[in-house]
Amino acid sequence: MTKNLDWLAQLPPGWGGIYSKLVAELEExxxxxxxxxxxxKFGELRVHVDKGSDEIYRLIDAATKQSRSTCExxxxxxxxxxxxxxFTTRCDEHAEGHAESTAKPIAASIRxxxxxxxxxxx
Length: 122
Description:
Largest sheet: 3 strands, antiparallel
Distance between the termini: 27 Å
Number of strands: 7
Mean pLDDT: 84
């Protein structure tokens, strides 16, 4: 599972704690899961795994939800911001010209579990 921590280098520094906590929670459950990808997309943490259960996906969804209100740069409380269609979550100190977004990015996620497709509310 420590291999899953390799993705930390690909993530914004402010979300390192969120991702590390997620990996620790997966290890606590002895889940033999490999993270296939972890990244920032549309201002939130996205984590893709090779397999999972409802419990595992709840943990991932909780980390994603937490990232939506955590500055990507420093980990302080943040809000979704928009810079010409590039969405990012930043605190006021790190806004750097990113206006607070009045709209959410259009994004839908579909998760397939046991052959059934589920729309994930973002």
